[in-house]
Structures are given as C-alpha cells and as structure tokens.
Amino acid sequence: MELFGLIGIKDIIDILIVATILFYIYKIMKESGTLNIFLGVLSFIIIWFVASVFLKMELTGRILDKFMNIGLLILVIIFQEQIKRFLVEIGSHRRWRFVHNMFRHRSADNKQQAEWIMPIVYACLNMSKSKTGALIVIKGLLSLENYAQSGDIIDAAINSRLIENIFFKNSPLHDGAMIVSDGRIRAAGCILPVSHDANVPKQLGLRHRSALGMSQASDALSIIVSEETGNISIACNGKLSLRLSSTDLEARINQFVNLTAERKA
Description:
The chain is of the alpha+beta class.
C-alpha cells in the first residue's frame, strides 16, 4: 500500500509517455527490419541502468557512461531514417486528428487523385500481361528527393503510355525505380535501398527487395510488377502484399493516398 501512496498522477503520466515512446520505436524498428538492433540497444541501456543506479558499480558505470555518450550520436547517424519516421508518426498520428479538424477546411479532391491513380493501375495491368518488370514508388510524407537524384529527373504528368515506355525492356531507365511525387512522375531509373530481411521468399528478386527496402526506409508505397511471373505486388510499412489484382491495386493506392492526405492535413 505504501508503494501506491508514493506514486502520483505525474509519475503515471511519466510512465505512460515512456511506454508510448518505446512502443512507437519498437513498431518502427520492426517494420524497418532492425528490431534485433533495437533489442540489443535496449538491453545495453538496462545493464547500464542497473550497474550505475542500483548496484552503484563506479568503474563499470563510468565505462558504460562513456559508451552512452558516444553511442547516442552513433545511433542518431545510423537510424536517421527511422528517427524521421518516428517524428512523422508522432506528429501525424490519428489521435491528433481532432486538433487538425479544428483548424483546417475540408476539401474533397478524390477526382484529382483518381486522374493520376488510374493511369498507374492501367500501366501496371498492361505490363503484367506482357511480363514487363516495373518498380513504381509513390511518395508519402517523407521526402524521396535523395532517391530521385540517383536517377533521371523527369517531372512529367502521369499517363500509362509514358510509364510503359519508361519500363520497356530496351529503355535505359527500365532497370531502376520510378518515383511519383505530388501526382507527377518525379524521376525514373532511381536506385533504392535493398532489404536484407531473411523472411523474404527466395523466389522474389531484386525489385521486390528494393521495394521492401524503400518501405522500411520511408513511408512510401512501392508497386512491383514481376518480370518472371507478371504478378503485381505492393510493399508498404515494411510488409509485402503479393499477387494483387487490378482492383486490389487501385484500392490500395487510393487507401494510401487518402491516409497520406489525412496525415498531412
């Protein structure tokens, strides 16, 4: 009973804040395939806390303190993409939606969205029939400019013929990824980060691993058309969805675009 008497409202709020932060870090690390690193860092922090605070081990505590000071900077450098995603996740979480709704005017632009979504769907369907490999990345909230600069900047309106020409087998841009930003084709022939997730089926090739890697490094949605099978797949939030129909593809893109618009508002 004495323990409950020492815990106040401020302590409960403090615990909830820390638990929430750890939950979101765990979620993002799991999606990015770096969960083992997160668990290793968490274990190191627990050992440091026990040695320094509870056991009062001065020598061990001082050594671990040095590692903590240097390690924080190293972690920021290593996990800069995950930190960006964490900040975006916190800043645009659905719990804040009621605040956003108080200060914004609703404007439906689903018609404009459909105008550039459907050409992507038609192009993917045609490339699926001809077994033309393709990799299309649709930007979320996080900037993809670094990846766009690795290819050729196009900045063109989206239409299915242009997409099919970009991924035509004899095209110099067909091996890279195409990046869609703000309803326009930003760049093509782009180089994406490759996922090294051991759970990816071995029959999936470099396009699928690149799409998964992009979904782990950013909040973008990636569409893959397999050159071997013609199957259409999607990578988003660190997960692959395989063998989608054109209807499923359209629904998933619409869902992603609407959710991104809500988070941005």
